[in-house]
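Duplicate of #3305? Posting structure anyway:
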């Protein structure tokens, strides 16, 4: 079983090495971001678009934002189609009202046919 202990030890060292490498790369990226944000802030101060205090706050805010973990919104799949109701603000005239009534009757007939088909199958 000495071989199993060596494998566990190597796996542990591999994990530690990967974590250290990721930490180093993250630190490098943060340093690069700070440099770029500071350069942008310096340019804006030189142009008179912001004060030195605003520039310092800008860089600090950028760094805080970069260090926060990103929160992903879970995608939600609907279980059934969403119902849409069409509301008309205009008063329908008598011919439109008849057309609407005829369409409602057709929809009801189709729904009944669909229910019947589901029961038969």
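Output from current build:
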């Amino acid at each position: 079983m000495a071989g199993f202990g060596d494998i566990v030890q190597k796996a542990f060292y591999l994990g530690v090495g990967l974590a250290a490498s990721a930490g180093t790369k993250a630190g490098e990226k943060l340093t690069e971001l700070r440099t770029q944000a500071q350069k942008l802030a310096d340019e804006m101060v030189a142009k008179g678009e912001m004060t030195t205090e605003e520039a310092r706050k800008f860089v600090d805010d950028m760094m805080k934002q970069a260090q926060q973990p990103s929160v992903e919104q879970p995608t939600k799949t609907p279980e059934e189609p969403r119902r849409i109701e069409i509301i008309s603000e205009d008063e329908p005239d008598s011919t439109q009202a008849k057309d609407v009534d005829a369409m409602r009757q057709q929809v009801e007939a189709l729904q009944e046919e669909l229910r019947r088909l589901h029961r038969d199958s």
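Confirmed duplicate; merging threads. The radius of gyration is 33 Å. The chain has a mean pLDDT of 81.
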